[in-house]
Structure formats: C-alpha cells, structure tokens
From TrEMBL:
Family, per entry: Belongs to the peptidase A1 family.
Gene3D superfamilies from the UniProt entry: Acid Proteases
This protein's GO CC annotations: lysosome
Species: Temnothorax curvispinosus
Any single GO BP term: proteolysis
UniProt GO MF annotations: aspartic-type endopeptidase activity
Domain of life: Eukaryota
Encoding gene (name): LOC112456731
Domain Peptidase A1: 62-100
Name the UniProt record assigns to this protein: Lysosomal aspartic protease-like
Entry-linked Pfam families: Asp
Position of the signal peptide: none
InterPro entries in alphabetical order: Aspartic_peptidase_A1, Aspartic_peptidase_AS, PEPTIDASE_A1, Peptidase_aspartic_dom_sf
Length: 100
C-alpha cells in the first residue's frame, strides 16, 4: 500500500510539473565593461617602448638599470625572458647577486 501511495505521489508531481512547465525567453544584452575599458586604455596609453642596455651575467641571467616612479628611483632589474613579470629587488637583496 505504501509503495502504491509513493508511486501515485511521484506520478502526480511529474504530471503537475509537466502541465505547468513553460518555455520562458529572457532577452540577453551585451553590456559595456568599464573594468576592461579602463585596463585597455591604461595599457594603450603606457605602451611606449624603451631601450635598456642588458648585461649578460654568466649566460644565466640578464640584468639592466631602469628608473621607476616620480621622482625616478634607479633599480638593477633581472629581465625574465620567460615571462611577462618584472621583479623589483628588495632593499634586503643579497649584494653577491649582480642585479641587487
């Protein structure tokens, strides 16, 4: 008897759900991304190039001197040719390394 009750309940729920099921259409609109625009604009305005003489240290790493900030501060930088990252050394950098 319990099985019959559960089966009938499930069938009723399925029938009720299929009767009330409707296809709803929701319009989609492409929106303007302020975040993307400001990032692209910033990159576009700062995409100038500069030439930096590089020093080849033991065929292991390349380093050069650049200036960053206002007023400019001079840093010796390791140029990582394997990525787009630019690492600025800490003031606690080991002096035995050429880029410090």
């Amino acid at each position: 008897m319990y099985r019959l009750f559960v089966t009938m309940t499930v069938i009723t729920i399925i029938n009720f759900a299929s009767i009330n099921a409707k296809l709803h259409s929701i319009p989609l609109h492409k929106t303007f991304s302020v975040e993307k625009f400001s990032t692209e604009t910033m990159i576009r305005h700062r995409s100038g190039t500069a030439t930096v003489p590089l020093v080849n240290w033991r065929n292991i790493q390349y380093y050069g001197t650049i200036e960053i900030g206002t007023p400019p501060q001079t840093f010796k930088i390791l140029f990582d040719t394997g990525s787009s990252d630019l690492w600025i050394p800490s003031k606690n950098c080991n002096v035995n390394q050429p880029a410090c």
